[in-house]
């Protein structure tokens, strides 16, 4: 993956996109104003014709049937459940636990009656895909079998990053032969990135979003976190618009600018969707990356992250696999400090407590360490500066070490004293500039309910991991070889 667009071009593209979005939003406002005015006028004419029927007898009323934009409050009985994959052999001395992602996926397929849309990076759900003979692949194989069965009974659509020739494609062939519709999104040609998103939309009323790929290892050998939302058509419809963008791009060689109005949304960081989530009043929205994939009204993922940090009043806890203030895959190398600068700024200006839990495994890039050590230096209790970094290591037996690309904490979330952010991206520049990702952002600070908020549950997950035996403080003397 590479980025051939220079910074000035990116700024120019973003300015043109924002200008296009403003024009679309102005068009919406004009439509609403015109429709409202016309409605009032027709009501007056109708009333006058009733009171004075003879006046209009020679002039029949016009047959006008305009589609009026609607903004309705969401009253769906939405239920959200945090879900996790805990790698085989990983045990916590904690009562904090959540349903498995495997069970969540099987449950969603049980619920499916009409349609199932999956946005995915790649597919390796079987032992054959990974050239392994692991018993724990049985969960991924069960998911694939059930998906194949559903593909012959209802509408199953899969948007996937265009696979490289070396990548396994047997799963996709099986699903296609079973009746699934598959579109490969050529992100390399569109943005020079990849389709890294991981979400499901079921019957346009249930969703899953999180860090887990369509990979058997994501169910039993990799630590993952996501969220399932049931019976929430308003939110599912909005996530469906992001899927439809991928679906469109699966047959397009260029990105629309601006996107057609049908892809736009009313819900973003400034005007979130207001809905009852677990019987709790909640402000919710979905963000997306890259910015060129965001239709009018959609908050780009980077802006969502920066906004969540800005709104924090007490603490910011972050758990991601990779953290780099660079364009990780660009040539030539490029520094990219948007998130890093924001963290340092809020720690200094607002005295926010910052905690970063970063993964450490066989594929960890050594260049991450000096940048993380630099952040960890922003710690001085006397000056009320409090940024701390820890490394999370998933232990592996000799046999488990033979499983390729496994035994890692793959989480991608952030939680503050106000907001829960559950995403699908690693935290380096490419994921927000050229790679397709998405995130669910939930604010329940207005809650008066006895139900635990999503934010409190996610905070408990972070603190469980932070205080566990698998977490080690990063110091200036920490060495990659000693940990990973």
From TrEMBL:
<keyword id="KW-0378">Hydrolase</keyword>
<dbReference type="Pfam" id="PF13918">
    <property type="entry name" value="PLDc_3"/>
</dbReference>
<dbReference type="InterPro" id="IPR032803">
    <property type="entry name" value="PLDc_3"/>
</dbReference>
<keyword id="KW-0269">Exonuclease</keyword>
<dbReference type="InterPro" id="IPR001736">
    <property type="entry name" value="PLipase_D/transphosphatidylase"/>
</dbReference>
<keyword id="KW-0472">Membrane</keyword>
<keyword id="KW-0812">Transmembrane</keyword>
<feature type="domain" description="PLD phosphodiesterase">
    <location>
        <begin position="191"/>
        <end position="218"/>
    </location>
</feature>
<feature type="transmembrane region" description="Helical">
    <location>
        <begin position="26"/>
        <end position="51"/>
    </location>
</feature>
<feature type="domain" description="PLD phosphodiesterase">
    <location>
        <begin position="405"/>
        <end position="431"/>
    </location>
</feature>
<dbReference type="GO" id="GO:0031901">
    <property type="term" value="C:early endosome membrane"/>
</dbReference>
<protein>
    <recommendedName>
        <fullName>5'-3' exonuclease PLD3</fullName>
        <ecNumber>3.1.16.1</ecNumber>
    </recommendedName>
</protein>
<dbReference type="GO" id="GO:0043202">
    <property type="term" value="C:lysosomal lumen"/>
</dbReference>
<comment type="similarity">
    <text>Belongs to the phospholipase D family.</text>
</comment>
<dbReference type="GO" id="GO:0004527">
    <property type="term" value="F:exonuclease activity"/>
</dbReference>
<keyword id="KW-0677">Repeat</keyword>
<dbReference type="InterPro" id="IPR050874">
    <property type="entry name" value="Diverse_PLD-related"/>
</dbReference>
<dbReference type="GO" id="GO:0031902">
    <property type="term" value="C:late endosome membrane"/>
</dbReference>
<keyword id="KW-1133">Transmembrane helix</keyword>
<keyword id="KW-0540">Nuclease</keyword>
